[in-house]
Design brief:
Helix content: 40-55%
Low-confidence stretches: none
Mean pLDDT: 83
Number of strands: 8
Number of helices: 7
């Protein structure tokens, strides 16, 4: 039994019309998928050459480029089959806005994480103070910054708090200035005490010669004359040298008969005669 000519023509027209659309859609999908992979790999390779861009941020941006291209390709394929993508885009935009409002705190942390990984104001291994906390940076991801205190307590900070706060980075510069303050009695010889401080500093190999150490009279206190030593050291030597000099100065003052006075205050009692 032969099919009617009209039916054959209709089937041929459908195959011709929609077959071409199907083929075009497949070509768009395959081409878009290949383009997305190429763009992702290219983005990862180009960003990987920069020392300023963290690996975490590189992977995030590469994935963002890939999925953005795939989203555009899907919209183009739907448009190929006559789907009204304008309404779809409006619906997706409204949904994205609603999700963004619901997750605005998380998105702010994400944006701050991108900025931290891009501009690198702090790095893993540095000792910093930020958002009211201080510790060594252990990890920076897209949402959280992890610190460890000197006694190894974990601190997790939202990236938005870190990015929105002042950062004191104690490890950024290779050298630091160590200020040592020690008090002597008013009855002691100031010049002799300053020479003792100079000799203690000179006996240690860790103070840097340039800038040269300074020993100054910095304050006339209630119970002592304060001597301040300003010493430039390598950042890694800051705390070990501070602890060692504290002990060495006390021992040197004892050996030379220089007194480190206890806090004291003179009181004058005025007796009034009774009438």
């Amino acid at each position: 039994m032969e099919m009617p000519t009209d039916a054959v023509n209709q089937i041929f027209a459908l195959v011709t019309t929609y077959g071409l659309k199907v083929v075009g859609g497949l070509v768009l999908l395959i081409g878009g998928w290949a383009l997305a992979r190429w763009a992702s790999h290219t983005t990862r390779r180009l960003l990987g050459r920069s020392r300023r861009v963290d690996d975490t941020l590189t992977g995030f941006l590469a994935s963002l480029v890939r999925y953005a291209i795939i989203a555009v390709v899907i919209i183009a394929v739907l448009n190929q089959f006559g789907v009204q993508t304008t309404s779809l885009i409006a619906v997706l935009g409204a949904a994205g806005l609603a999700i963004g409002l619901a997750l605005q705190g998380t998105l702010s942390n994400l944006a701050a994480g991108v900025m931290l990984l891009l501009f690198r104001p702090i790095r893993v291994g540095q000792y910093v103070q930020t958002a009211g906390q201080a510790g060594t940076v252990q990890d920076i991801n897209l949402f959280m910054t992890e610190l460890a205190t000197p006694d190894n307590v974990q601190i997790l900070l939202p990236n938005s708090a870190v990015w929105g706060s002042a950062v004191l980075n104690y490890s950024h510069h290779p050298t630091r200035r160590l200020d040592m303050v020690v008090g002597i009695a008013y009855a002691d010889d100031m010049d002799r005490a300053m020479d003792v401080v100079h000799n203690v500093i000179a006996a240690d190999s860790r103070p840097l010669p340039d800038p040269a150490p300074e020993v100054l009279i910095s304050n006339l206190g209630e119970s002592a004359v304060d001597i301040t030593a300003r010493i430039w050291v390598n950042a890694d030597d800051y705390w070990p040298l501070k602890f060692d000099l504290t002990k060495a100065l006390e021992q040197a003052f004892d050996a030379h008969g220089i007194t480190i006075p206890f806090p004291q205050r003179d009181m004058h009692i005025v007796a009034s005669s009774s009438t």
